[in-house]
Design a protein that fits this description.
This protein has 28 helices and 22 strands. It is an alpha+beta fold. The chain folds into four domains: 221 residues, no CATH class; 177 residues, no CATH class; 215 residues, no CATH class; 167 residues, no CATH class. The strands form three sheets. Strands 1, 3, 4, 5, 6, 7, 8, 9, 11 and 12 form a ten-stranded mixed β-sheet that branches. Strands 13, 14, 15, 16, 17, 18, 19, 20, 21 and 22 form a ten-stranded mixed β-sheet that branches. Strands 2-10 form a two-stranded antiparallel sheet. A hairpin with a 6-residue loop joins strand 18 and strand 19.
Length: 849
C-alpha cells in the first residue's frame, strides 16, 4: 500500500466509524460560512442597487451642486449655467410627497417626485423623460401631468390616464398620470413632472434641490470641482458620483460590518466544534498513530495526514455553506428586502448575484478556521513518543498539552488592552478582537476551572455518605479535567456568545423603550403632509390647533436637515421649546451637560446627540457654528442627549432662537397633551373637524412606540436568527463531544461492568456527568458571555452607532436556553452511553489483557 492509499484508508475508516460526529462538524462549518456569505450577498446586492438607483437620478452629469439645507434659491442656476467650463446645467427639484391612502404605513407612505427641465434632461438624464401618449408630447410640460415608474404605478395601483391625489402641506392636489418613464430601476418608486409645475404645485417657488453640471471636453474635473467649491462658499457643496457612493456606503457601513461580524460568530463557534472533533479523533486514535510510527510512518506523514483530514472537512463544509448561504440570501431578499428590515435602502429590489471572488474568500475563511482547529491536535500527535502513546491511559496527559495557562492569560490580558483602544476608521476593530481573545482565553482556562470546581465539590461532599455513582462521577471529572474541557469547549463557546448577543439586544430594546417614553411624552402628535424640508403649519393653522378645547398643553416643533460634512449623511435639526433652566425636563440628557441654572443668558444653547460628539467633535461648553439662518451662527453646546433614531447626528435648539434667526415661523409637528377626561378618539375627531383636518397625520404616542419597537425587532431579526444558530451549533457540539467521548470510554465501562457496576448505573453516571459538565459550562458561559456583552454594549455599539445604553439581562430567555442545553446534554450523554455499553463486556476490555 502506497502513501496515498494509506491516507485514504485512514480517512475513510475514521469517517465511516464516526459518521455522525463528522456530519455534525460539517453542519457547524456550513452554517457559519452560510450566515456570513448570505449577509455579504444581501448587503452587497442592496448597496449596489441603491447606488445604481441614485446614479440613474443624476444621469450623465459630472458634478452635482447641493445646498447645506434641503433647498436653495434658484438664482444660483443662471450663474452656474454661464460659468466658464460648464457645457450644460440642469436644475432639479426633488420632493417626498405624502400619498393619502398609504398613511397607515408611516414607513412607506411617500412618493419621490422629481421636477426636471425637459429640454435639459434630454441631454443629461434621458431616463427621467416621460413617455407620453402618441400626439401628446407637450404633456411633459403640462402643469398637472405626472409620469410614474412601473414600481410606483404598481404601488399606487394606477394606470395612464388616472388621477392621483397627493397631500401638499394642509392641502390636497390632484394630478394626472400622463404615462411612464423611459427607464427606471426595478423597485424604484419615483415620479417625474415639469420643474416649473412642481415648484408651483408643491409650493416651492424659486427653490431647487440640486443643479447637475455637464462639463466641457478638456476641463479637469478635479480642479474645476475645487475651484467651484471655493467660489460658492460653505453654503453649498459640490459632489461627484463617487462622493454620493461614499455617503451611501457610510449610511450602512456600521450595520453591515456588525452583521458580518455577528455572522462570523457562528463560524467562530464552529471552529471550536471542529477543534473538539479533531482532538477527540486524535486522542481516540493515539495508539493507532503510535503503531504507524513504529511501522515506519514519519512525523511529517502523520502531521500531513491529520491536517489533510481537517482540510477536507473544511472544504466540504465551506462548499455546503456557500450553497446554503446563496439560498438563504435569495430567500431573505424576498422576505425582508435588501435592507434586512433596517430601511437603509428603501425603494430598491436587488437581485442576488453570485460573486466568484467573494465566494472564494468565504470558502478560504471557512477552510482556514477549520485548519486552525486541526493544527494543534495534529502537532501533538506528531510529537508524541510512540512508546508512551502505545500505553493505555495516556489520553489525559496528551490533552494537558492543549491548554497551557500562559496562553490563556496572555489572551485575556491582550483582550483587556484592546478594550481601551479607539476605533479604526470609525469601526470597533479592537472591540471584536477583544471578544475573540476573551473567548479563546476563557476556553483555554476551562481545564483548570473544571479541575478546581469538581475537586472542591468532591472535597466538600466527602463528609457525606455519597452514592457510588456520584462518587465515580466527581472523581473522574476532578481527575480528568482535560477530557471534560473538550466537551465544555462547545458548550462554552455557543452559550457565551448567545448570552452576549441576547444581553446586547435586550439592553438596546429596553433602552429604546425607555427613551421613547422620554421623547414621546405627549398624548398625540400631529404632522402636516410635509413636502421636502418645508414646514406644513403656518401661523393661522397653529392658532386654530392651539385654540381647540380639550388640550392642557400644545408644543410646536420644526425639523430640518443640515449638511455639515459632504462625506457624511445629513444631520437633523430640531427646533422646539426646551426648558432652559433644566433641559432634563425636555430631553433624555446624559450626564454630560451644563449644570441646571448655569447656562449663560447671552448665548444661544443647543443640545447635541451622542453621534455629534463622536463624528463632529462637539463638546459641552464649546461654541460651534451651524448653518442656521441666512448666514452661519454661533451656538453654545449645553448638553448631550441620547438619540436612538438618528445614527448620524441630531441637534436640538430653542424654537424661538430658530425663528428669530431664519424668519421661518412655520412648523412641522404639533405635540398635544390631553386634558383629564378627554378621550383620544374625541380629540382626534376635533382635529379632523378643522378645515384642513383631512390632510393631518395624527398619531397616538402609544402607537408610535409600538411601531418603533416593531421596526427594532424587524431590524434585529437577523441577530435573533444568529442567536438561535449559536444555540443550535452549541447543542450539536454537545452531542458530538459526549458521543465521541462516551464511545472512547468503552474499555472503562467494560471494566466497571466486570467489578459489578450495572448498566443502569453506568447510564446514571453518563447522565450525571453530562448534566454537571453542562451546568459548569452554562455558569462559566454566562460569566464569559456577560463579559463579552459589556464589550458589545459599552464599546462596540458606541463606536459603531455612536449611542450608549443601559445594561439589561433577559433572565427568562437565558434560563430557558440554559434549561434546554442542560436537558439536551444529559439526554445526549445517556443515549451515547447506550451504544457504548451495549457491546460484549469481555470484548470491551480484551485489549488490556
Amino acid at each position: 500500500m502506497n502513501s496515498a492509499q494509506l491516507s485514504r484508508w485512514l480517512l475513510f475508516g475514521e469517517w465511516r466509524a464516526h459518521f455522525v460526529q463528522i456530519v455534525v462538524a460539517l453542519i457547524a462549518i456550513a452554517i457559519g460560512v452560510a450566515m456570513a456569505f448570505s449577509i455579504h450577498l444581501i448587503n452587497t446586492a442592496a448597496f449596489n442597487e441603491f447606488s445604481a438607483a441614485s446614479k440613474s437620478l443624476s444621469g450623465q452629469s459630472d458634478l452635482q451642486i447641493y445646498g447645506r439645507k434641503a433647498f436653495f434659491d434658484e438664482s444660483l442656476y443662471p450663474l452656474l449655467a454661464n460659468t466658464e467650463g460648464v457645457a450644460l446645467a440642469n436644475p432639479v427639484l426633488e420632493l417626498d410627497v405624502v400619498v393619502p391612502g398609504k398613511l397607515q404605513n408611516r414607513n412607506d407612505h411617500k412618493l419621490k417626485i422629481i421636477g426636471v427641465d425637459m429640454f435639459r434632461a434630454v441631454q443629461i438624464s434621458p431616463d427621467l423623460l416621460g413617455l407620453t401618449e402618441e400626439g401628446k408630447t407637450l404633456d411633459r410640460l403640462a402643469d398637472d401631468a405626472l409620469f410614474l415608474s412601473p414600481a410606483a404605478m404598481e404601488w399606487l395601483q394606477v394606470k395612464q390616464g388616472d388621477s392621483l391625489a397627493l397631500h401638499v402641506g394642509l392641502q390636497t392636489i390632484t394630478l394626472r398620470v400622463a404615462g411612464g418613464l423611459v427607464r427606471a430601476r426595478a423597485g424604484q418608486r419615483i415620479a417625474v413632472m415639469d420643474i416649473g409645475a412642481a415648484q408651483w404645485r408643491f409650493q416651492q417657488l424659486g427653490l431647487l434641490s440640486r443643479i447637475e453640471l455637464k462639463l466641457k471636453n478638456g476641463v479637469n474635473h478635479a480642479a474645476f470641482k475645487v475651484k467651484l467649491a471655493d467660489e460658492l462658499g460653505e453654503s453649498y457643496r459640490v459632489t461627484e458620483a463617487i462622493d454620493q457612493e461614499k455617503r451611501i456606503a457610510n449610511m450602512s457601513r456600521a450595520y453591515r460590518v456588525n452583521l458580518n461580524m455577528l455572522a462570523l460568530v457562528a463560524l467562530f463557534t464552529g471552529t471550536f466544534l471542529v477543534f473538539s472533533t479533531q482532538v477527540l479523533s486524535v486522542i481516540r486514535r493515539r495508539q493507532q498513530f503510535a503503531l504507524l510510527r513504529v511501522l515506519g510512518f514519519t512525523r511529517q506523514q502523520l502531521l500531513r495526514q491529520i491536517i489533510t483530514e481537517g482540510a477536507i472537512l473544511g472544504m466540504i463544509g465551506s462548499l455546503l455553506g456557500l450553497g446554503l448561504g446563496y439560498t438563504i440570501a435569495a430567500t431573505a431578499i424576498q422576505l425582508l428586502g435588501g435592507d434586512l428590515g433596517t430601511n437603509f435602502f428603501p425603494g430598491v429590489k436587488p437581485s442576488i448575484y453570485f460573486d466568484p471572488l467573494a465566494a472564494v474568500i468565504f470558502f478560504l475563511v471557512g477552510l482556514i478556521v477549520t485548519m486552525l482547529g486541526s493544527i494543534v491536535p495534529a502537532l501533538e500527535a506528531a510529537r508524541a513518543k510512540p512508546a508512551l502513546a502505545l500505553r493505555s491511559g495516556s489520553e489525559d496527559v496528551a490533552m494537558a498539552k492543549f491548554s497551557p495557562p500562559w496562553f490563556a492569560v496572555i489572551c485575556l490580558l491582550v483582550a483587556l488592552l484592546f478594550t481601551q483602544l479607539p476605533p479604526i476608521f470609525e469601526l470597533p476593530v479592537f472591540g471584536y478582537l477583544a471578544i475573540a481573545l476573551l473567548l479563546i482565553g476563557g476556553i483555554a482556562l476551562m481545564p483548570r476551572f473544571a479541575a478546581w470546581a469538581f475537586s472542591m465539590l468532591l472535597n466538600q461532599l466527602q463528609h457525606y455518605q455519597l452514592s457510588a455513582v456520584l462518587t465515580l462521577v466527581l472523581a473522574r471529572l476532578a481527575n480528568a479535567p482535560n477530557q471534560a474541557a473538550i466537551a465544555l469547549g462547545g458548550i462554552l463557546a455557543s452559550f457565551s456568545l448567545m448570552v452576549a448577543m441576547a444581553i446586547m439586544v435586550t439592553s438596546f430594546r429596553v433602552s429604546i423603550d425607555g427613551w421613547l417614553g422620554h421623547v414621546l411624552p405627549a398624548d398625540l402628535y400631529v404632522r402636516a403632509a410635509a413636502t421636502g424640508d418645508q414646514g406644513g403649519f403656518q401661523l393661522d393653522a397653529q392658532k386654530a390647533i392651539a385654540e381647540l378645547p380639550g388640550f392642557d398643553r400644545v408644543d410646536f416643533f420644526r425639523t430640518q436637515q443640515l449638511t455639515l460634512d459632504v462625506d457624511r449623511p445629513e444631520i437633523t435639526l430640531f427646533a422646539r421649546p426646551v426648558d432652559r433652566m433644566d433641559a432634563r425636563n425636555t430631553l433624555p440628557l446624559t450626564d454630560d451637560r451644563i449644570a441646571p441654572g448655569a447656562l449663560p443668558e447671552n448665548v444661544m444653547p443647543i443640545w447635541v446627540s451622542e453621534a455629534m460628539v463622536d463624528l463632529y467633535g462637539y463638546r459641552v461648553g464649546e461654541k460651534v457654528t451651524l448653518p442656521v439662518g441666512v448666514t452661519s451662527n454661533e451656538f453654545l453646546v449645553a448638553g448631550v442627549w441620547r438619540d436612538y433614531g438618528r445614527q448620524f447626528g441630531a441637534v436640538q435648539m430653542q424654537l424661538a432662537d430658530y425663528q428669530r434667526l431664519t424668519g421661518d415661523l412655520n412648523v412641522n409637528t404639533v405635540a398635544l397633551w390631553l386634558q383629564t377626561g378627554m378621550a383620544p378618539d374625541e380629540a382626534i375627531a376635533n382635529l379632523r373637524q378643522l378645515p384642513f383636518g383631512a390632510a393631518l397625520e395624527i398619531s397616538r404616542s402609544s402607537d408610535m412606540r409600538a411601531l418603533s419597537l416593531e421596526i427594532f425587532d424587524r431590524s434585529f431579526a437577523v441577530t435573533y436568527i444568529l442567536e438561535m444558530v449559536a444555540v443550535v451549533i452549541g447543542l450539536l457540539g454537545v452531542a458530538a463531544s459526549f458521543s465521541a467521548q462516551t464511545l472512547a470510554r468503552a474499555k472503562e465501562f467494560g471494566m466497571l461492568r466486570h467489578i459489578g457496576v450495572m448498566r443502569q448505573q453506568i447510564f446514571a453516571i453518563l447522565a450525571t456527568e453530562g448534566g454537571l459538565l453542562t451546568l459548569l459550562g452554562i455558569v462559566l458561559g454566562f460569566v464569559l458571555g456577560w463579559s463579552i456583552s459589556l464589550i458589545l454594549v459599552f464599546i462596540v455599539n458606541p463606536q459603531s452607532f455612536h449611542w450608549t445604553m443601559q445594561l439589561h439581562l433577559p433572565w427568562g430567555w437565558l434560563t430557558m436556553i440554559a434549561g434546554i442545553m442542560l436537558v439536551s446534554a444529559a439526554l445526549t450523554a445517556l443515549l451515547a452511553g447506550r451504544q457504548a455499553v451495549s457491546g460484549n463486556v469481555i470484548r470491551a476490555v480484551r485489549e488490556d489483557w
